[in-house]
Amino acid sequence: MTMKFVTLNLAHGRKDAWHQALLRRATIRANLNEVARILRQEEPDVVALQEADAPSLWSGRFDHIAYLSEKAGIPYFVLGEHVQRMKLAYGTALVSRQRLKETISHQFSPSPPTQRKGMIIGTIRWPGQQHFSLDVVSVHLDFMSRGALKPASAGRVDTSQ
């Protein structure tokens, strides 16, 4: 049995626009619909996402990962929110055809002027192999930091959706 993995920086749903705050919610949804179409076509088992938004003022005020999960037909997801401030919430995410277990979100130490980065880790079972598990990771490194891998904090994430 083989598995297919995809990784993508969602860029807060802006596609190639200058900034997501300048876009209408409908445009951001259309951009995410395009990503969902590609995911349906490629049929990955796990998708690792960066710059993935929870409801945020600057990116349409809706949960991009829940939306993408539904539109792509990939039922399980987890978001590690590495930035949580003044109506902004985003980070890295995993979307999977299998339930994600033992999920952990890590935030890296800040490196101004950029926003905090981090990673989300989850465990899945290898299909057809009941005793074989695989850890999957979505990581977003900061080009401004030499010490990007030094964890600032860690915590479990609820995956009960």
Q: What is the element string, with H for helices and E for strands?
A: EHEHEEEEEE
Number of spatially distinct domains: 1
Main beta sheet: strand number and arrangement?
A: 4 strands, mixed
Quickly give the CATH architecture. Answer: 4-Layer Sandwich
Task: Provide the gyration radius in Å.
Answer: 15 Å
Provide the CATH superfamily: Endonuclease/exonuclease/phosphatase
Q: Report the strand count.
A: 8
Percent of residues in helical segments? 10-25%
Strand order of the largest sheet: 1-2-4-3
Strand % is 35-45%
What is the strand and helix layout of this fold?
Elements: E1 5-9, H1 25-42, E2 46-53, H2 64-72, E3 76-85, E4 88-96, E5 101-108, E6 118-125, E7 133-140, E8 151-156
Parallel strand pairs: 1-2
Antiparallel strand pairs: 2-4, 3-4, 5-6, 5-8, 6-7
Helix pairs in contact: 1-2
Briefly say what this structure is.
The chain is of the alpha+beta class.
Jot down its keywords.
161 residues, 8 strands, alpha+beta
Task: Tell me what the structure shows.
- There is one protein chain.
- The chain has 161 residues and is of the alpha+beta class.
- The chain has a single domain, classed as 4-Layer Sandwich (Deoxyribonuclease I, Chain A).
- The protein contains two helices and eight strands; from the N terminus they run βαβαββββββ.
- It has a four-stranded mixed sheet with strand order 1-2-4-3, covered by helices on one side. A four-stranded antiparallel sheet has the order 7-6-5-8, with no helix packed on it.
- Strand 3 (76-85) and strand 4 form a beta hairpin.
- Helix 1 (25-42) crosses helix 2.
- The longest helix is centred in the first third of the chain and has 18 residues, at 25-42.
- 37% of the residues are buried.
- The model has no long low-confidence stretch (mean pLDDT 89).
